[in-house]
Hints:
The protein contains 7 helices and 11 strands. By secondary structure, it is of the alpha/beta class. The chain has a single domain (2-246), classed as 3-Layer(aba) Sandwich (Rossmann fold). β8 (154-161) and β9 form a beta hairpin. The chain starts with a strand and ends in a 5-residue tail after the last helix. Adenosine monophosphate binds at residues 6-8, 36, 38-39, 62-64, 94, 97, 115-116, 118-119, 122, 124-128.
Amino acid sequence: MKILVAAKRVPDPDTRIRVRSDGAGIATEGVRFALNPFDAIALEAAIRLKEQGGASEIVVVGIDAETGVETLRAGLAMGADRAVLVREVAPLDPFAVAKLLAAVCRREQPQLILMGKQAIDDDCNQTGQMLAARLGIGQATFVSRLDLGPDQSTARCGRETDSGTETVTVTLPAVVTVDLRLNEPRYVTALGILRAKKKPIQEVTPAELGVDPTPRTRLLHLAPAPRRKAGVRVQSVDELLARLRDEARVV
Ligand code: AMP
């Protein structure tokens, strides 16, 4: 079984993010980038399936400028076998990403597509669903438990929902988007980094894939969240109720 894992480069979750003064995006100077944490979970799931004998090859795919190579190398160092970088410098929306990933899937023919439930930079949570729709295959989203069926024609997925875990079985090939509790991704080892240097990264352009990646959505303005006012300590429940009624006007 071939598994394709989508890998997006995002600002490192520990980096302090500043909004550009023109509101056109975030200031990237001095910002460290890393593999989207949910994609690291997706990749860990793929590696575990391979270690258990359930997969023969893991391909990581990123859509990015040439800087995306670094993120893909991190994925290769974790344990993916090879990588595909779709080179695109222009900003993309989930629909454009889904179109590009669908074109790569048509070439690669993976039996399982694993991706994050969301990218932590735009928090869209749309790409996996759009990809499954474009490929006309099934999907299981927010997955925190994943087991392949005995003949690898299905995957049994536990989905995180507001009311608990829902278990669904999807026929493969399918798209599975992963949630936080699926696993804890392994650390990259020095040996993994050395091995990654020899693993192939194929580069393609949207034109070579026959895809027009022009986004259908436009970022109008990005603004930092307003600073929260300092809290006040109240002396009694009566005072709390009075403030909620007279100042906050919520009761
Ligand atoms: P989103 O819908 O933007 O929250 O992203 C959901 C998932 O789609 C991410 O966790 C990635 O697995 C995948 N994805 C989104 N953008 C890209 C990209 N530029 N390159 C590779 N994968 C991506």
